[in-house]
Amino acid sequence: MSGTIDGQVIATRPQLTEISNAAVALHREHFGRGPGAAKTHVTDNLVVCVLTDVFTPLERTLIEAGQAARVRETRAIHHAATEDAYKARMEAVLGRSVEAHMSTIHVDPDVAVDIFVLGGGGGAGAAASDGAG
Can you give the pTM of this predicted structure? Predict the structure, then answer.
């Protein structure tokens, strides 16, 4: 993260883009295709990456067949198996430890959200966002 003003974390536009790009790359590596777009928000000790157009063709087929719960279940299992890889990648990009990573999906609209809770400092009240994709 860039720096602080009165204890507030400030993320620059290039840093937000770098975080979004890392989220896109992780998704591409683990799902075989990247999301259509990504936007990152940073506030306090939270990094929130909102990804759109995330489902694979297989997942879309299951959703259309009324099996959205199966897609959610598979994504949850996948998250548990890859949490350390996601945390490590974001730690490298952010230069801060990641204490927790949470991930969720929404079917309609087609959206995934990755939340990273940072450790090792940070402030209160700062907010920034940017898109990349």
Answer: 0.82
